[in-house]
Amino acid sequence: MSISPEKERIIEAAMSQIERQFGKGAIMKLSSRPVMEVAVIASGSLALDKATGIGGIPRGRVTEIFGPESSGKTTLALHAVAEAQRKGGVAAFIDAEHALDTVYARKLGVNCDDLLVSQPDTGEQALEIADMLVRSGAIDIMVVDSVAALVPRAEIEGEMGDSHMGLQARLMSQALRKLTGSIGKTMTAVIFINQIRMKIGVMFGNPETTTGGNALKFYASLRLDIRRTGAIKEGQEMVGNRTKVKVVKNKMAPPFKEAEFDIMYGEGISRYGDLLDVGAEVGVIEKSGSWYSYKGERIGQGRENVKKYFQENPGSYDEALLKVREALGLAKEDLSVPAPEIQSAAKPPTRGAKKQHDKQQPREILDVVDEPAPPADEIE
Questions:
Q1: In whole angstroms, how far apart are CA 298 and each of 4, 228, 289, 321?
Q2: Exposed / middle / buried, residue 63 (Cβ in 10 Å: 0-12, 13-18, 19+)
Q3: Which parts of the chain fold into alpha helices (H)?
Q4: To pair with 250 at 20 to 30 A between CA atoms, which of 63, 136, 161, 360?
Q5: pLDDT at 34
Q6: Phi, psi of 296 (to 5 degrees)
Q7: Coil, helix or strand for 177?
Q8: Nearest 5°: phi and psi at 259?
Q9: Helices 314-328 & 271-282, crossing angle to 10 degrees?
Q10: Residue 336 has pLDDT above 80, yes or no
């Protein structure tokens, strides 16, 4: 049953008032298209880029990736780092867990030689380093792995068994208040990886919660819940995991979309399986039972055989990938959008430093361009 024209007019007026008061994107219909153009960095998965509604990880905003252990949180973040570096961006990785595997990162496409890595001793140090990097304006993407490992200094200096109620939540709340403005000004994509815990005494509803208090839930523009849904086997040997990502919060496009892809051990997200799944959804690749066809020709039976076909035929893979990107409305050459010109959000110089800076600045030359050049015979 359709809504009456009078109600439709009232709803439109209310939505316009909400957007004027709270900004564009404060309210939307779930069926609507993305309401704003957002510069993004590709996530490394076509399915996830499609699920976000904007084409990847947003720049100038905070993204949270959370889930159970060994679900692919760091793998997904490293794929985004690799995509940013592939476009010439600068990436930083704050390894609070002291567990970054550079060998695995290289297999995912990360240029570890140019990757900025910090392994801080305390949570305060980690977030201060993050603030300085963001304010520099030179970082395109930064990953904090993880929020649970951001241990307050008081807890480290104390003894085992001491109670430190709310210290980490207070630390995260203060840090995000400082970081958010700088992140928006410098168009840095900041990814916080988080772990889940169980709430005690919950009889109904979801007992899971994330660490670090509620501040990150509010400040994050994109929250991704990543889970393993099954195992991928070759015979009796497990070679990977089937993974599902749910967009539980999205300020740029309608939320609650889901994406599924394969994470292969030692390889990361399978781009061939990703292309197969998304291509079948948009109609570039046809599926009939267990058989898959491309351009009217059968290319294999079963997902694994089709993945091997694309792996052995890079020309067909590139052609199908281009068609899928066009069908999704994404860029032809890359899923990422270059960030606009940015300025450093570093703190302003002191008065004395400003005077010295002004002395070094060249004098502006005005109206000289409009003056005609003197004749050649007048030049001595």
A1: 50, 30, 12, 17
A2: buried
A3: 5-22, 46-52, 73-86, 102-107, 123-136, 153-157, 167-186, 215-219, 271-282, 303-312, 314-328, 351-360
A4: 136
A5: 52
A6: 85, 0
A7: helix
A8: -135, 140
A9: 50
A10: no
Task: Read off the tokens for 307.
Answer: 């993945």
Confidence band for 136, pLDDT divided at 50, 70 and 90: very high
Q: How confident is the model at residue 263 (pLDDT cuts 50, 70, 90)?
A: very high
Taking residue 287's Cβ as centre, other Cβ atoms within 10 Å add up to 15
Nearest C-alpha neighbor of 138 from the set 282, 316, 283, 346:
346
The pLDDT of residue 35: 46
C-alpha 146, offset from chain centre: 15
Residue 116 has what pLDDT?
98
CA distances from 223 to 18, 57, 170 (A): 23, 10, 20
Copy the structure tokens of residue 108: 């995912």
pLDDT tens across 24-34, in order? 777 888 776 55
